[in-house]
Design brief:
heterodimer; A: alpha/beta; five-stranded parallel β-sheet; 16 strands; elongated; B: mainly alpha
Chain lengths: 235, 106
């Protein structure tokens, strides 16, 4: 796994580099004191992972992320806990380490990374189109079918399969809710029940503990309800 | 008042004294620069810029085991963004204690 470290503090870079030394198969190719230099580097070099500080002069970590066309996995390193929610809207952000980082926490991060890379490799059936935040390709009988995110109404878990209900039709795909959840933009989709992810921009109404989308009534679990309510533009 | 210490640095070094030395050299270079930058900004009443530097210094406080100092810096950073400087003196005392500590380590 080839990585780079981007942080304007030399001491912070040194800590991460030291932790990385003890991780098998993890190589730190380069360290950068600012995001601009890192951007130039990754244009010409393949990188699997970036340890990225958020607060940097000129170009912040978040600005940097926004410029990436085909982002590798990213671990954010920051002294600010306030960006955690914003950070996790990006599916390629694997972890969020608050400085000063302890060795124990870094080791947990490595476990998460290992899982993230394994999951990516095991998900050939559903792939997000490169350079696109608008759609998703699903594999049906060896045919890749493009679904626009805006057309997806909801996804239901059905054993080893998921059913994707779109404005036009229903698709059955061999996958799990967790796998597809990682491919969907959080700005539009939310899991509201252990068996359902919904496109919450398509909600018609909410009554008691259920939502109405198109003609489907979907249950909301008690634990997911607060997040759903937070996402809604309530009067 | 809590005192700076090397506990965290020893934890991350895993007993590697060479690493500890190199790391402390970096801290000895970085901290005075950050402190001077902070002093320039706070003396110039540039509170937003001061908050940015406090954010960086905060990490050093954590590295040097100043848990209370770290918490105070979090509060001070937020306060500065809202134009509130009431923690200025307390923060200054922390800076002085760090400065003394790092100038006395070999």
């Amino acid at each position: 796994m080839k990585s780079i470290i981007v942080d304007d503090e030399a001491s912070a870079r040194m800590i991460v580099a030291e932790f990385c030394k003890g991780v098998p198969n993890l190589e730190v190719l380069h360290e950068f004191p600012n995001a601009l230099e890192a951007l130039k580097y990754i244009r010409d070099h393949h990188v699997d992972l970036i340890f990225l500080d958020i607060h940097m002069p000129k170009l912040t970590g978040i600005d940097f992320i926004e410029t990436l066309q085909n982002p590798p996995k990213i671990v954010l390193t920051t002294s600010d806990k306030n960006f955690a929610i914003e950070a996790y809207q990006y599916p390629f952000i694997v972890d969020y380490l608050v400085k000063p980082i302890s060795r124990e926490r870094f080791e947990k991060c490595m476990t998460k990374l290992e899982m993230a890379f394994t999951t990516s490799e095991e998900t050939p059936n559903i792939s997000k189109q490169e350079n696109s935040e608008e759609d998703l390709y699903i594999n049906i009988d060896r045919r890749l079918i493009k679904l626009k995110f805006s057309d997806i109404l909801l996804i239901e878990a059905k054993g080893d399969y998921i059913e994707i209900l779109t404005l036009q039709k229903r698709f059955r795909v061999h996958s799990t809710l967790k796998k597809i959840k990682d491919k969907l933009p959080t700005s539009r989709f939310l899991q509201i029940h252990r068996s359902y992810i919904i496109n919450f921009t398509q909600i018609i109404d909410i009554q008691d503990n259920s939502v109405l989308i198109e003609k489907s009534v979907i249950p909301i679990s008690r634990s997911n309800r607060p997040e759903l309510m937070q996402r809604l533009n309530l009067l | 008042m809590e005192r700076p210490n090397l506990d965290y640095i020893k934890e991350i070094s895993g007993g590697n004294e060479e690493f500890e030395k190199r790391f402390l050299t970096i801290i000895q270079k970085e901290f005075p620069k950050e402190k001077n930058e902070y002093m320039t900004q706070i003396d110039g009443d540039n509170l937003e810029q001061s908050a940015t530097i406090v954010h960086k210094i905060k990490h050093k406080l954590g590295i040097l085991g100043l848990h209370e100092g770290y918490r105070l810096a979090i509060k001070y950073e937020e306060d500065l963004k809202y134009g509130d400087t009431k923690l200025k003196e307390e923060f200054q005392e922390i800076l002085t204690s760090v400065e003394e500590f790092i100038s006395n380590i070999a």
